[in-house]
Amino acid sequence: PFFSCWLIDQDHHLQDLLQLIASGDGENEQWCNNLIKDNIAHHKQYIQAKTTLVRQNVFLVLAPTWMSSFERAHLWIGGFRPRLAFRLIINNVLDLTEDQIQRINIVIEDIKEEEDELTDEFDKVQERM
What we know:
Layout (H helix, E strand, L loop, with lengths): L1 H22 L5 H28 L1 H5 L6 H9 L5 H10 L5 H31 L1
Helix pairs in contact: 1-2, 5-6
């Protein structure tokens, strides 16, 4: 719901900017300044919500449920690797036991193997293109 509402508001901001351009009233400095301030505030709202979400559940930010599998694949192509989430845990959670750290490292190794396989598949697809 937050993200959906935020996108609707984003569209309204876009329509306001397009209306300003279409009106030819780009000289109206006050209108321009208000639109800029509104857009900056709107993006700050998104960043604040995302920060709150990270504190509640970082995995929702690393693998957003509102994204399709295709969109999540773009995260992968863009450099995000699932094992990063586990590295963040090891590096930032101070009260992990040695057993927990070992188990996380095992999961990281398993994930690394799967990541390597997927990367090889991406490479093959890219070579065919």
